[in-house]
Amino acid sequence: MLFPLLVLAIVAGDQLTKMVVRRTLAPNETVPVLDNIFHLTHVNNPGAAFGLLAHRTSFFIATGIIVTGLIIIAYRQFRNGGFYFQLALALQLGGALGNLLDRLRFGYVVDFLDFRIWPVFNLADVAIVGGASLLVWQLWRRGGEGERERE
């Protein structure tokens, strides 16, 4: 029961923050939080990370649907994988759904977290990267446990 609640919380937090950005900042408007370190910058990103493949909305919608399905299949297959495994999948699914909702509604993703040394991103992106990192860590850790058992 925790998995769907985590996914819902991630999607809700992502969509709420994007709504606030859309309502308070014009596109390309930036507000320094820590001058030259961290800004809130409203970017409508029609591409992937770094703006790659801009305006390929149908491709990104199809990819988002496929990724969503694969994450749900992985969750059902490995439901008893433990808390961190479920958290990793929930983060990835919540992030994928958050960005997918943007693409379906607007044809682009709303980004706003701007650290000036990296392209602008959003909470869904943080969830996806965090979930993928946690998943890799879990798989690496479990692989190491298997190696110790064989010795």
Q: Report the β-strand fraction as a percent range.
A: 5-15%
Q: Outline, from the CA principal axes?
A: globular
How do the SSEs run, as a string of H and E? HEEHHEH
Low-confidence stretches: 147-151
End-to-end separation in angstroms reads 37 Å
Q: In DSSP terms, counting alpha (H) and pi (I) runs of 4 or more, how many helices?
A: 4
Strand order across the biggest sheet? 1-2-3
**Helix residue percentage:** 55-70%
Structural class comes to alpha+beta
Strands, count: 3
How confident is the prediction overall: mean pLDDT? Answer: 91
Number of domains: 1
Largest sheet: 3 strands, antiparallel
Radius of gyration: 17 Å
Q: Helices, strands, pairings?
A:
Elements: H1 2-24, E1 30-34, E2 38-45, H2 57-77, H3 83-106, E3 109-114, H4 123-150
Antiparallel strand pairs: 1-2, 2-3
Helix pairs in contact: 1-3, 2-3, 3-4
Structure in words:
The chain is 64% helix and 13% strand. By secondary structure, it is α+β, with helices and mostly antiparallel strands. The protein has one domain (2-140). The chain has a 3-stranded antiparallel sheet with strand order 1-2-3. Helix 1 (2-24) runs parallel beside helix 3. The protein starts with a helix and ends with a helix.
Keywords:
disordered C terminus; 3-stranded antiparallel sheet; globular; alpha+beta
